[in-house]
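From the pipeline queue, job 12 of 40. The input is one protein chain; the requested action is below.

Action: predict structure.
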Amino acid sequence: MKNSVLGVALIVLAVVFSVKSVFAGPPFNNLEGVGGIAYNPLAYLADSGEEFVKVGDHNVLAKPRFGAWYVNLPDAKIDWTSLGVATTLLKRLELSYGYQNVAWENHPTFHKNNLGAKLLLVKEDSFDTKFVPAVSIGTIYKNTSNKSLRDAGLSTLRSSGEDWYAVATKTITQLPAPVILSGGVLSTQEFVTGVLGFNNKRKLTGFANIEIVLPKGFVVGYEFKQGARFSNVQNTNYWDAHVAWIPNKNLTLIAAYTGTGDYNKAGNTRTGLGDGFVISAHYAF
C-alpha cells in the first residue's frame, strides 16, 4: 500500500510539472486544500492575481490553484499524500477541496476529505494605510474513514468535524527582503488534523507563519501549529521549516522538514508521529 501511495504521489507531481498553461507563490494549497502554507491558512485568498473569469466588467471566478503533497514520517512508518484545489469568487470568498490518503504500516489506511470556505473581511492596506493586515475568517468541514476508525480501535471518536479560524496576514516590504507574517486562532475538534477522528468538544489553539521572500524566486519559512488537548486525546504541536522555489509564474516546488512530536516515547502524553521530510508541487492556472 505504501509503495502504491508513493507511486500516485509521483504521478501527480509529474502531471503538475508537465502542464504548460497565474501567479505562483504564497498562498499555496495547504495539506487540506486551503490557501495557506502546509498546516496553516493564510488570510490571503488562493486566487491568481489578475487571472479571473469575467462576467461583463466584473471579476467573478479566479482560475484555480492546485497543490500536491507527499509527507514521509519514518518513525511511525507513515506515507501521507494530499491533493488540493482552491479558487476564489468575487475576490472575497475562497472555496477549496482537499483529499488526504494516510497509509500507516500495520494500521488501516485513512482517507480524509476536506471542504473549505474562507471569507476575506479586510483587504491588506485598507483605509489608505500601509500597515493594516489582510484579515479572513474560515471553516473546514472534514470527514475521515469511519471503518478505519473502528478497525484502529478509535470508534469512540467521530468521523467528521469542523474547524473554524480567524487569521491576519501582512507582507512587510520595508525590510531588505519582503517578509510575510501571519497568525491566527483555530477552534477545532480534530485528532491528528482529523485523520484519526474528532472530539465532541472544541478547543481553541493558535498558529503562526513567517515567510521570507528571497531573490531568484526563493521563499524560506517556518510555521507552527498548536495541538489541541482534549480529555481523551492529546494532540502534539506541529512545525515545519521549508524552502520554496518559484521557477516561473505558474509553478512552485517545495521541500520541507516537519516535526509532529515524539512517536511512542515512554511517558509521552501526546500523540506524536515523529519527524519527516516533505515534498510538494503547486500550479496556479
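Job complete. Residues 4-22 have pLDDT under 50 and may be disordered.
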